[in-house]
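Database export, one record per block. Field names are fixed; values are copied verbatim from the stored entry.
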Amino acid sequence: MTDLISVIVSTYNREDALDAVLRALSLQTDRRFEVVVADDGSGPATAGVVEARAKRAPVPISHVWHADRGFRLAGIRNRAILASRGDYVIFLDGDCIARPGFVAAHRRLAEPACFVTGTRVLLSQALTAAVLADGLEPERWTWPHWAARRARGEVNRITPLVTLPLGGLRRRLRSRWLGARGANMAFWRHDLERVDGFDTSFQGWGREDSDLFIRMIRSGTGRKDGRWATAVLHLWHREADRSALTHNDLMLDELISGDRITARAGLSATAAEGG
């Protein structure tokens, strides 16, 4: 296993959530990692959060930004990959709080020819507001605390917070991309490079992760199930603008109907664009 892991945190104009996410990453039991904040065009306040956290974090934190020209998650993730240094890359959404063993769990699950997809627990709107307004630290909460929150309907489930040694069962979904989510996932850098990273043809919300999963599986990199090991705490947010979904669905259908492995406009195109 590589020594350095890169955790890429995607964000857009949600400074309070990003601050909580960076705080939780500073509490990781495994500190052999760096954080790269992939900023999809946020205003100056986001840079201020990153700078403040970087000054006191026990791990390196850097900030990659591009101009706001709509939802361009694939593009900013590619820029963050290019700026990162680890041989293994974890992608985490900027509203997903990691518990202290998150990086260590991903390190344990990493194996050749596999990518890992994790799970999440959804916090209610009211609990999210309390966490952000009152500085609560749910990443530190114990099982009885979570059981009480579940009983009050403040989270959708708590079973993902259990840790189970599933062994070979984690590879039972090796060729299945359906059901995988992109908020919490990990890849070897050389596997990302082989498929040319994320496809920046996907602009607007939706399907850029599915596109990557399909191309990964076609390239010989199988899916490994990270449930009951890597669960993150997903803060509530309003539903994203889905006006581009129909177009993105058509692009995904085109991919499915063919045999393409590399992105139409991927890492290499992003690198050629420069800053």
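Remark 1: The chain has ten helices and ten strands.
Remark 2: The CA atoms of residues 95 and 175 lie 28 Å apart.
End of record.
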